[in-house]
Specification:
Blueprint lengths: L2 H26 L6 H13 L8 H14 L6 E2 L2 E2 L16 H9 L7 H11 L8
Antiparallel strand pairs: 1-2
Length: 132
């Protein structure tokens, strides 16, 4: 083979690998949870309704991980950037906490943000995106 053909083959393999990696990574992780699931977890602690399936410590850890990315470019989530959700109006003390997530999930006027917030939690919990 000529050098040019080898270079083209190597380039094609590299491009195919880059395109497939988000799909492969996505299949290796647990499915993303819905906004309702995340809302239930948070409400279980704040309102005592139902039983939570994750610990309070895990929710705090994930909220802290989300807080690290506010104001920066969003992390890539299986080949797609997470949407930048403007939560500054909801952040009471300058950092995103589980209390802030409770405020968002409790406000039915902000239900258009629930899926975005759920996918931020899915990202922080190392899960796939929730697509509805």
């Amino acid at each position: 083979m000529k050098m040019r053909q080898i270079c083209i083959i190597v380039l094609c393999v590299a491009l195919m690998t880059m395109m497939a990696s988000p799909v492969l990574a996505c299949r290796c992780r647990k499915p993303g949870r819905s906004p309702g699931w995340w809302k239930h977890q948070i409400n279980a602690y704040f309102e005592g309704k139902g039983k939570p399936h994750v610990s309070w410590g895990a929710l705090e850890e994930w909220a802290a991980r989300i807080d690290e990315y506010f104001g920066m470019s969003p992390p890539w989530f299986y080949g797609y950037p997470l949407p930048m959700v403007d939560l500054l109006d909801y952040i009471a003390n300058g950092e995103f906490t589980v209390d802030d997530a409770y405020g968002i999930f409790s406000d039915t006027d902000e239900n258009h943000m629930w899926t975005h917030l759920a996918n931020w939690f899915n990202w922080a919990a190392n899960r796939r995106p929730y697509w509805g």
